[in-house]
């Protein structure tokens, strides 16, 4: 029995090439995810300019990855890529809320609905943290605005019949809304 060495070399090169590309994607998406997390952290501390700069950096990394890997769509199914996108979406949508814009579509990055929903499900948790900060600063109208936004998000998600991972994320979003309602109740007792 003899092997087709030329064919096996082609297979080996393709697999090794993909593995190298994957390692690069994992590193770059890790950077994008880290910047999105830092952007959220800055937003929670009213660091609007810093958050905007970090969001732009994360967006640039993700857009560059999309261009570089256009011919290799399997890369976009990697967990690290999806996690970075999810974190970016959460940061982007939370920033929309803080800028008093309509929470909705991303302007430059096209994402699958499942990943968009995953990121959206994390926003009520950020709204809860922001409401607690606002309550300690006696900004009670902002606490109410956070609750209204979280309620609207849950209202949209409840009609989507989510399953699997997004169902778990939805349940976490509902828990954040419940806690937000508790914060609002406690604030109403003090004001």
Descriptive overview:
The chain has 191 residues and is mostly helical. It has two domains: 1-104, Methane Monooxygenase Hydroxylase, Chain G, domain 1; 112-191, Translin, domain 2 (Methane Monooxygenase Hydroxylase, Chain G, domain 1, Up-down Bundle). 79% of the residues lie in helices and 0% in strands. It has helices at residues 5-44, 48-68, 79-98, 113-136, 140-158, 164-190. Helix 1 (5-44) runs antiparallel to helix 2 (48-68). The longest helix is centred in the first third of the chain and has 40 residues, at 5-44.
Oligomer type:
single chain
The helical percent reads over 70%
Strand content: under 5%
The CATH topology of the largest domain corresponds to Methane Monooxygenase Hydroxylase, Chain G, domain 1
Question: In terms of per-residue confidence, which ranges show pLDDT below 50 for 5 or more consecutive residues?
Answer: none
The CATH architecture name of the largest domain reads: Up-down Bundle
Number of DSSP helical runs: 6
Question: How far apart are the termini?
Answer: 85 Å
Average pLDDT number: 94
The run of helices and strands is HHHHHH
User: CATH top level of the largest domain?
Assistant: Mainly Alpha
Helix-strand makeup class: mainly alpha
Radius of gyration: 20 Å
Principal-axes geometry comes out as elongated
Task: Summarize the biggest pleated sheet.
Answer: none
How many β-strand runs?
0
